[in-house]
Specification:
It is built from 1 helix and 20 strands. With about 400 residues, the chain is mainly beta. It has a single domain, classed as Porin (Beta Barrel). It has a 20-stranded antiparallel β-sheet that branches.
Length: about 400
């Protein structure tokens, strides 16, 4: 099925679901038109940058549908249409579609199925060819069952399938094919220690990641313990700590890649006008380039949003990713070990003209640095100004 037919089918499904949902549904729409400037539209090395002004239109449709007292559908659809004055192609479009169905099978069993489809530009760490098509589509299907054992304990099991395919079929062709399939499974036991305050858990995650062609991939099993804790009504923290037992395919065969596993997050709302969130992680992760089959990745991120007044709000987000590539993870040649730093900073301000209309101003900076001649370094700055309608 081609992408146009896929989008049409999804839109029809959502529209049909809205009809059946009746009065127990909510529907929100937002449209943002932005004019901006990008100083490195192809994410190229210094000296080869191509700059361009652009106009983009981003539509956001979201809502919930209650089919019954036991079933609910949450959905989100965001198409984007962008025209770049000095680029080839000049016109590009993207899609971001998400749907989650929640259903109470019984008083003790709860089912959740979700699917996310994206059609977008390459990620910041990818090495797609600069002047050629850099877009790909990606689909992530997940399902989970939760079983309540008693008033304090529950078991959760789940699994999923994710794939990615690039428009440019020659990008990493043959043994460097960058399309992939990924199979996931997980299970956990959750125990409430303090009512509405602290939950402890123990679990296992499994990932089987395979690039298309003869490139190979990796598989990883992570054993972990964790805690979710409400410090107070305004602060929630989560942490998962464990160890991953992994094997990564390389040019000389499968390599052991055992390593610690860490995931942590924090949500803090000190006032009604301010929110802060943070994340921290370390794990074996898929490679975003055609040289290595996996990376040891450390990531940290923080986001802040604050309403200066009833009409003016500002937000900022900063993320940093450090990637270490073992030479044994390489699937061809002898590139050796490599390290990579990726930084992303975004700033956005908004002024509310009236109930439905807003003026937005934004800036985004990305930088990729590496000690390897096989990976691509670049800096990128984007500015935009626009009008947003919220209904």
């Amino acid at each position: 099925m081609n992408k146009v037919k896929y989008f049409a089918l999804v839109a029809l499904m959502l529209g049909s679901a809205t009809t059946f949902a009746g009065k127990d549904s909510s529907f929100h729409i937002q449209n943002a038109v932005r004019v901006g400037y990008d100083d490195n539209i192809y994410q190229s090395r210094e000296g080869n940058q191509q700059e361009s002004a652009f106009i983009t239109d981003i539509i956001n449709i979201s809502g919930k549908m209650a089919f019954s007292s036991r079933s609910e559908l949450t959905y989100f659809w965001q198409p984007e249409f962008r025209y770049r004055f000095d680029a080839d192609p000049e016109f590009i479009s993207f899609q971001d579609l998400y749907a989650r169905l929640s259903h109470a099978v019984s008083q003790r069993t709860f089912l959740e199925v979700s699917d996310r489809f994206r059609y977008q530009e390459k990620d910041g760490q990818s090495d797609a060819r600069a002047e050629e098509n850099q877009n790909y589509f990606e689909n992530d299907l997940m399902g989970a069952l939760s079983f309540t054992l008693n008033a304090l304990s529950q078991i959760r099991v789940g699994g999923g399938y994710e794939f990615r395919k690039w428009d440019d079929e020659s990008y990493g062709a043959g043994f460097r094919n960058n399309d992939y399939d990924q199979y996931k499974a997980d299970g956990s036991y959750i125990r409430e220690i303090r009512p509405n305050t602290t939950h402890l858990m123990a679990g296992v995650n499994y990932v089987d990641h395979e690039y298309n062609g003869d490139r190979g991939g990796y598989d990883s099993t992570s054993l972990f313990g964790g805690v979710d804790h409400n410090f107070n009504p305004n602060m929630l923290g989560t942490a998962r700590l464990g160890y991953s037992l992994s094997n990564v395919d390389g040019a000389t065969g499968s390599q052991d890649a055992d390593a610690p596993y860490l995931q942590a997050g924090l949500e803090y709302n000190p006032t009604d006008r301010t929110s802060v969130n943070g994340s921290l992680g370390y794990s074996l992760y898929l490679s975003e380039n055609t040289i290595y089959n996996a990376q040891d990745r450390f990531n940290v991120g923080i986001g802040v949003k604050h309403d200066l007044t009833g009409k003016i709000s500002i937000s900022a987000a900063l993320s940093y990713i450090f990637s270490a590539y073992d030479g044994a993870y390489a699937q061809a040649g002898a590139p050796g070990d490599a390290e990579e730093d990726f930084i992303s900073l975004s700033l956005r301000g908004s002024y509310q003209i009236n109930r439905n209309n807003f003026l937005d101003l934004g800036y985004e900076f990305t930088q990729r640095a590496t000690d390897s001649v096989f990976l691509q370094e670049y800096n990128r700055n984007r500015f935009d100004f626009g009008w947003r309608l919220r209904l």
